[in-house]
Amino acid sequence: MSASTIGKEPVTEQPRRGPKPLLAEKGKGNGEITLLWFFIVGPMVALAAAVPVFWGWGLGWDDVVLGAVFYVIAGLGVTAGFHRYFTHGAYKAKRWLELTMAVVACLSLEMSPIGWVAEHRRHHQFSDEEDDPHSPWRFGTTKRALTKGFVDSHMGWLFKKERTNPERFAPDLLKDPAMVWLDKHYGYIAASSFLLPTLIGVCGPGAGKVPLPPSSGRDWCACRSCTM
Ligand SMILES: [Zn+2]
After folding, report:
1. How far is the CA of 171 from the centre of ligand 1 (A)?
2. What is the pTM of this model?
3. Which member of 2, 41, 207, 218 has the lowest number of beta carbons within 10 Å of its beta carbon?
4. How far does residue 87's CA lie from ligand 1's centre (Å)?
5. How remote is the CA of residue 82 from the centroid of ligand 1, in Å?
6. 55 - beta bridge partners?
7. Residue 27, by phi and psi: left (phi above 0), alpha (psi -120 to 50) or beta?
8. How many domains does the chain divide into?
9. What are phi and psi for residue 227, nearest 5 degrees?
10. How far is the CA of 88 from the centre of ligand 1 (A)?
């Protein structure tokens, strides 16, 4: 022991007091935000343009059915999986069902299970307060402010760079290797939400026609799920 340390207590790191920060240190990058715009807004615009042009020869009822099926699958993943099961633990599910719900909910493009659950638990903890990411009241009470709040609370939150801290709000999911894997590979699943219906449209019963691009139904899911 050197002279300088004689009589000194060893320095130990003090545990941090108080709750962990609300937001994760690393928010969404520009690339991620751009991809979100491309995969969420792009298909909506394409659909609006495609229906009047292709209906009857390029688009038909089989495309509508394909879109509806993906809509129901992704929607159930979000409402029964992300929301009721993962966020609130409202019921018990076997592991295969848990994983299936987690994967199909990713098709809605509303973030990975870890991200969604953290965001939604924060919403409940600070309901309609300043730190609630889904509050329609955050811009004020005028008509204009409420309209902005409505859009922001239902869809706008998805395009923001801030990311709710999963270490504070979803530590249980961070301990599940499957959820961590989904979080890491979320981009591939997001891409498949676009490619899968397209592939079925091209190779399936309606082969030869132009497939309905936004068949996954994620656009509609994104509009309605966060306040369920
Ligand atoms: Zn809830």
Report:
1. 17
2. 0.78
3. 2
4. 7
5. 9
6. 59
7. beta
8. 1
9. -110, 15
10. 7
Ligand 1 centroid distance, CA of 120 (Å): 6
Amino acid at 96: W
Give residue 4 CA to ligand 1 midpoint distance, Å.
Answer: 57
Do residues 81 and 114 lie in contact, with contact meaning Cβ atoms separated by under 8 Å? no
* Domain assignment present for 134: no
Q: Decide if 185 is inside a domain.
A: yes
State the residue range of the domain holding 109.
Answer: 26-46+60-123+180-224
Interacting residues of 93 by C-beta distance below 8 A, sequence separation 6+: 85, 101
Q: How many angstroms does the Cα of residue 113 sit away from the middle of ligand 1?
A: 14
**Contacts made by residues 193-202, CB under 8 angstroms, sequence distance 24+:** 193/39, 193/70, 193/74, 193/106, 193/107, 193/108, 193/109, 193/218, 194/39, 194/43, 196/70, 196/107, 197/66, 197/67, 197/70, 200/66, 201/63, 201/66
For residue 86, what are its two tokens? 């993962």
Residue 187 lies in a domain: yes
Residue 187 alpha carbon to ligand 1 centre in Å: 25
CA of 81 from ligand 1 middle (Å) equals 11
Ligand 1 center from residue 84 Cα (angstroms): 7
pLDDT, averaged in runs of 10, over the chain (228 residues): 45 62 83 81 78 77 80 88 95 96 89 93 88 83 87 83 91 96 89 78 63 47 42
